[in-house]
# Entry
Amino acid sequence: MRGKSFLVYAIVLSLGEQAILLFVLLLVLPRIGLHVPGWAVALLATSLAAYSVVLTRLNYTALNRTPIQSPGIGARGRVVQALDPRGYVRVGNELWSAEVEGDHLGRGEEVVVLRVSGLHLTVAPASENAAGEP
# Structure
């Protein structure tokens, strides 16, 4: 998830959190006899909004970074979550978001890295590349 789709997701999620907080503070708690002062509601809502903004910025920055050490072309890994065409593979001790070139790959199948794009790998079944790749 990158760019605008991440930001839209983060905004919708933050608005949902705010709505739940206000629902509980303004409707649920008063029904059971707990009244929250207006200033406390405003403080909690503002704090949650600031927290959401800070975390969204940090996550957005982290998603756009290139890894310090990414697997090289030809590195081998295993499918952790089925690639249909997207899923996750383990290369070395790291879990990577990946997309398969070609057909669906099931869990446990061996893959070889064809391309690295940020934190996303493009892979192919290792058996297809056994002759020409390490």
